[in-house]
Amino acid sequence: MAGSLFDTSAMEKPRILILGGTTEARELARRLAEDVRYDTAISLAGRTADPRPQPVRTRIGGFGGADGLAHFLRDENIALLVDATHPFAARISHNAEAAAQRAGIPLLALRRPEWLPLPDDRWTPVDSVVEAVSALGDRRRRVFLAIGRQEAFHFEVAPQHSYVIRSVDPVTPPLNLPDQEAILATGPFKETDEAELLTSRKIDVIVAKNSGGSATYGKIAAARRLGIEVIMIERRKPADVPTAGSCDEALDRIAHWLAPA
What is the pTM of this model? Predict the structure, then answer.
């Protein structure tokens, strides 16, 4: 196929498309790249200005919703779609489920297990970013905002607080907040470094998403040690699709589904 994302010299191999953007997606792509039974490619949404190189052929950009993704799956003769996007990328996951159904192919969701509170944690669970803003209250607080840049604008309605905002890329447009500090950084983050950041900035509350995994857990462990409150935005109930909690589990399912007849 002219212009195909996949290896046109290996048409007999089942084609796997990974919707990526997470550490788990990159690891799964690396391991599938080493497996000669499959032809694998990965698609990134393009929200990060300088994404890390991927171990397989890479597509960057949206598809035009569920219909566009379904057309792509059919045109490229994809045998399996893997949704390995961020646990809070609800729209992409919804489109993946709809597109896989329309294209008549299986969908596998690769989701890292969510964090669970330990006895010394001071978590205030909420269901959305909007609820997290309200949970900060009216009294001025030093807030470490660690939810990424896409939804940080919600906190403009609470300018009484002082914010330290960490993200991979700059928040655009800049937030209209009188007291803010921006930190650009990419994980993983060590607990000791996170404890130093929280202490030096005199943080008394963290706002975080329950993304799971180890790369950003350092701030949660540091908050536990320092007795700092965490306003934890919990995940929504996942879609009713087959789900793997690790790359090993995903590879087992893929081998089962795409085994030669």
Answer: 0.82
